[in-house]
């Protein structure tokens, strides 16, 4: 999956908030799925790049995102069908009563899970 670890980096930015145990376990599973997805799809043919994981929270709402500067998601529906991983992330977001969104970056892709 990672042909040359020197070509990829992962950056994590978080605030100093704490999440309830059930939320943190679910977010950990979601982050794992999204990072694996980025490693599998965002950087073909030994492309170099960066994955950024971000988490922010206040008293009543939180947001978590995984973004990359890879090749991005195709705008053609024939080539951008959601896979099993996307279905898992969507189901977990719904269990957390959170919103799941995917946005094309320039370059790359950003996936966000937000709860308000």
UniProtKB/TrEMBL annotation:
InterPro entries associated with the record: HATPase_C_sf, HATPase_dom
Record has Oxidoreductase as a keyword: no
Catalysed reactions, as listed in the record: ATP + protein L-histidine = ADP + protein N-phospho-L-histidine
Occurrences of domain Histidine kinase/HSP90-like ATPase (ranges): 26-113
Molecular-function annotations in GO: ATP binding; protein histidine kinase activity
Enzyme kind, highest EC tier: transferase
Keywords for the protein's UniProt record, in alphabetical order: ATP-binding, Kinase, Nucleotide-binding, Phosphoprotein, Transferase
Gene3D superfamilies referenced in this protein's UniProt entry, alphabetically: Histidine kinase-like ATPase, C-terminal domain (3.30.565.10)
Pfam name, any one: HATPase_c_2
Signal peptide: none
Cross-referenced SUPFAM superfamilies: ATPase domain of HSP90 chaperone/DNA topoisomerase II/histidine kinase (SSF55874)
EC numbers, comma separated: 2.7.13.3
Name of the protein in its database record: histidine kinase
